[in-house]
Amino acid sequence: MTLTKTILFPEIEKVIRAFDFENITAERKIILQPLIDFIQNKATNQQEIRLNLICTHNSRRSHLSQVWAQTAAAHFNIKNVFCYSGGTEATALFPMAAKTLEQSGFKIKTIAIGNNPIYAIKYSDNEHPVIGFSKTYDDDFNPKREFAAILTCSQADGGCPFIAGAEMRIPITFEDPKAFDNTPQQAEKYQERSLQIATEMFYVFSQIKS
Question: DSSP label at 136?
Fold first, then answer.
């Protein structure tokens, strides 16, 4: 049986075509390899692949990682991939992170407002949206077992020596675009970080053999 390939929004496809895996350093590829191995092992054994992307506040890097990882899985037709995100504390998905995803072609709808808004983030007309809101990594919304915990910031990596239920703990840290909030470079730096995360997540899923 041939699996139908997910059709991403054209704007996202245009962004993807500009990715160059040659720009990922050899050192960085070594850091990404444990995640490739985890996903490949699950895919080979036809098991569900659960990834929980974790940062301190679950406001920027962990959400960007969650959304791009889910999109990469769809692009490369890797089935049964479920991406989540969480923090060591809950705050809110930072509006600039959502705006940055919109600029890359994602369609975002606010489905609840308040101090911690909830967003539906779509990458394809026919796929379930990623539900984006800030939560702790062990929130009931997230998996309790049989998942990989991917630490996307050094603070969470240092502050979470043990994550209950995780089969594997994988530090893949990114610099925080928050450092450029309220500066003229804010939009540029958020886009730069988003595209770095996207390129690396697409590289990871490009390595998976079905």
Answer: B
Q: Which of 75, 24, 42 is nearest to 148 (CA)?
A: 42
Q: How far is CA 57 from CA 97, 101, 147, in A?
A: 13, 18, 20
Encoding tokens for residue 201?
């997540």
- Chain position carrying tokens 């036809």: 46
DSSP secondary structure code for residue 47 in this structure? -
- Burial string for 162-177 (b: 16+ CB within 10 Å, else e) reads ebeebeebbbbbbebb
pLDDT at position 145 over 90: yes
Tokens describing residue 155: 């603070």
Measured in whole angstroms, the distance separating CA 13 from the mean position of its chain's CA atoms is 17
Nearest to 133 by CA among 107, 114, 152, 148: 114
Q: By percentage, how much of the chain surpasses pLDDT 70?
A: 96
Phi, psi of 51, rounded to the nearest 5 degrees = -120, 125
Please write the tens of the pLDDT for every residue from 71-110.
999 999 999 999 999 998 999 999 999 999 999 999 999 9
* Rounded alpha-carbon distances, angstroms, from residue 78 to 12, 62, 200, 201, 207: 18, 21, 16, 13, 11
